[in-house]
């Protein structure tokens, strides 16, 4: 069976590689603009499904994995910062607060689809502007929801992480992904 990751994220590629299944990578062409009033959870799931569907249409015989992550700060979605000033602003807004990261995954082929949303709570410690600037300059996390890399230097920003799946915070909830792939017929332990 052919497997495609509908993402060019190096983080998702590395995570999926842990399953030791051969897979291809295809960039999904999806508008990621939030709909008016859309909740962070709904946005993450809609985008994960849209990415999987977009690639699955072009590759109908393959199983396709789409994923998306949205940081939820009191119901306000925070995506990728894209630049230094926005990253600093996001991290300062999350200082001394708990932020929920909604990471959705969709596995589909044709009309068969499996979807899941993981919720990871991250409690940020009180951060000074100097600490945030030092972190952003060192790691440049502009391509990450919430402007940090928990698998890297960003772990120093937290007081605690509450999760059922530590890989979800990196960008692809592997426990749910492995379960869905086993259901689809892939041989995994």
UniProtKB/TrEMBL annotation:
Gene3D superfamilies: 3.90.950.10. It is an enzyme of class 3 (hydrolase). Its cofactor is a divalent metal cation. GO terms for biological process: nucleotide metabolic process. It comes from the Bacteria. The active site is at residue 68. It catalyses: N(7)-methyl-GTP + H2O = N(7)-methyl-GMP + diphosphate + H(+). It holds the Pfam family Maf. The record marks 11, 69, 151 as: Important for substrate specificity. The keyword Hydrolase applies. The keyword Transit peptide does not apply. GO terms for cellular component: cytoplasm. Its EC number is 3.6.1.-. GO terms for molecular function: nucleoside triphosphate diphosphatase activity. Keywords: Cytoplasm, Hydrolase, Nucleotide metabolism. It is found in: Cytoplasm. NCBIfam families: maf. Nucleoside triphosphate pyrophosphatase that hydrolyzes 7-methyl-GTP (m(7)GTP). May have a dual role in cell division arrest and in preventing the incorporation of modified nucleotides into cellular nucleic acids. Belongs to the Maf family. YceF subfamily. HAMAP family: Maf. This is 7-methyl-GTP pyrophosphatase. It comes from Lysobacter dokdonensis DS-58.
